[in-house]
Amino acid sequence: MDQLPICSCRKLERPFRKAIGATKMKIVILGAGLLGVASAWYLAEDGHEVTVLDRQAEPGMETSFANGGQISTCHAAPWANPSAPWQVAKWLGREESPLLWRLRADPAQWAWGMRFLVECSAARARQNTIDILRLALYSREKLGALRQQLGLEYDQLTRGILHFYTDERELSLASSQAALMREFGCERVMKEADECLAIEPALNASTVPILGGTYTAEDESGDAHKFTQALAQRCKLAGVSFLFGENISALGVEGGRISNIRFTNGRTIAGDAFVVALGSWSPLLLKSVGINIPVYPAKGYSVTVPLDESSIAPTISLTDDGYKIVISRLANRLRVAGTAEFAGYDESMNKIRCSAILQRLKAVFPGLKHEEKFDVWAGLRPATPSNVPFVSKAKFNNLFLNTGHGTLGWTMACGSGQLIADLITGQAPEINPEPYTFQPLIAAKPRLSPSL
Ligand SMILES: Cc1cc2nc3c(=O)[nH]c(=O)nc-3n(C[C@H](O)[C@H](O)[C@H](O)COP(=O)(O)OP(=O)(O)OC[C@H]3O[C@@H](n4cnc5c(N)ncnc54)[C@H](O)[C@@H]3O)c2cc1C
Question: In this structure, how many other beta carbons lie within 10 angstroms of the beta carbon of residue 98?
Fold first, then answer.
């Protein structure tokens, strides 16, 4: 079995680099979401002078704010697969559907849609799954190490993820997905209905029959926002500067390099290297320097429910395949999140879509309480057509991307942070960086390795 290639020798290399005084760079990170803060940590750990910029007042206030909470490594699958075009067509115009494509006169949406169709072949879907899985496995390991090293608390649960099915056809397809995961060292195990209820007894109350599921004991969950804020605190202690409340408007180019970033108020900040981690907003800034990345916002919703002793609620993280939603226990709260709506940068709440999530939650867990106190939120996932993010250099020698993580930004955050830090500082990455490399024509992206 082809396992994740991890080079342990690099762990000895880092103190040595510091001891010989490897060049200290001034690195500017654009965006203080999961990806920006994770990048900052690994770069600061390597001894560089790091500044993180964000228009919000605190870290993790946009897409990293109230996501589904899953570190769903062994459930990591791209949206683009052979059945996706039919599902999208079936759901067109249905307000309550899990995936809604709102047709717009927006060339970026159409270009993204064409690339998405290219990624839907069986061969591409398999390769994309492998590429996502490689980074997700690496990332889960990095997250575990960071938790141990820093003692971070973010309502984490390391009790696995149960993916349950309420549709026979989807359940039958699950076994091939689980087999693919097992091929690459992810223990995703098929479970009968009664085994699912034993793993998560709160499902016994479900009014929707649970037909079976897959379980991955090694997957995790936790509050991504709390994590981002806790890691940002540790970054500050390690000397990282944060500049909040400023809107970045342009990248300055001089002598074939990025020389500075400019804010809307005219102020500039210079640096040796720049990391774009602006989530869904990354393509808007990059366009100004002639870089066209296929990242499009995919709006999702979450509902957070406060719990008390009388609530009959799950104690592990779940994925409800029928509604494409995830459900995570975050201490005394329950977070349910999901659905995708391709409607540009519109962040408004759609009542029909939110109530579809709530109805489903109540059908599966009728014993929840405090309906009047539910918190509803919408966020824009930075989605690529393949679901494979860009963690690489782009066009200029000192410009780097850490963006496009779509549905799996929390799952891939720590691995992506370490990978981009390695690429910037010239250290040998522990995983093959090629699949995450930005190439202007990604529709024709060559695939070098058939395995992990
Ligand atoms: C409903 C939902 C559920 C999800 N569930 C999961 C899950 O269970 N597991 C998982 O792995 N992932 C999940 N995700 C995906 C995950 O949340 C995202 O991939 C991740 O948060 C993206 O992080 P980011 O750092 O790239 O972007 P962001 O968190 O959006 O950070 C980008 C930052 O850039 C700043 N910014 C943007 N433009 C500018 C500008 N011009 N000037 C200054 N600052 C700017 C923003 O303020 C923001 O703070 C979910 C997403 C959604 C919406």
Answer: 21
Cα–ligand 1 centroid distance for 336 (angstroms): 17
379 pocket-lining for ligand 1 (C-beta < 6 Å): yes
Buried b (16+ CB within 10 A) or exposed e, 274-310: bbbbbbbbbbebbeebebebbbbbbbbbbbbbebeee
Q: pTM here?
A: 0.93
The mean per-residue pLDDT over the stretch 263-286 comes to 97
In three-state secondary structure terms, 215 is strand
Q: Residue whose CA is closest, atom 5 of ligand 1?
A: 68
Whether residue 403 has its Cβ less than 6 Å from ligand 1: yes
Q: How far, in Å, from the CA of 279 to the mean position of ligand 1?
A: 5
**Between the CA of residue 213 and those of 182, 291, 369, what are the distances in Å?**
15, 42, 26
- CA–CA–CA angle 67, 72, 75 (5° rounding): 125
Asked if 170 contacts 177 with a C-beta cutoff of 8 angstroms, the reply is no
pLDDT per residue as tens digits for the range 314-345: 999 999 988 889 999 999 999 999 989 999 99
Q: Encoding tokens for residue 271?
A: 């640096």
What's the CA-to-centroid distance between 195 and ligand 1, angstroms?
35
Ligand 1 proximity of 243 Cβ (cutoff 6 Å): no
Q: How far is CA 85 from CA 63, 100, 118, 321, 408, in A?
A: 26, 12, 10, 18, 21
Q: Look at residue 7 and tell me whether its pLDDT is greater than 60.
A: no
Q: Which amino acid is at 393?
A: K
| pLDDT mean over 134-162 | 96
- Specify burial of residue 152 (Cβ count, 10 A radius: 0-12, 13-18, 19+): middle
CA 140 and chain centroid, separation: 12
* Helical pair 122-150 and 413-425, crossing angle rounded to 10 deg: 90
Determine which residue's CA is closest to atom 12 belonging to ligand 1.
Answer: 408
> Of ligand 1's atoms, which has the minimum distance to the CA of residue 377?
1
Burial of residue 142 (CB within 10 Å: 0-12, 13-18, 19+) is: buried
List of residues 6+ apart from 394 with CB closer than 8 A: 276, 286, 291, 293, 400, 401, 438
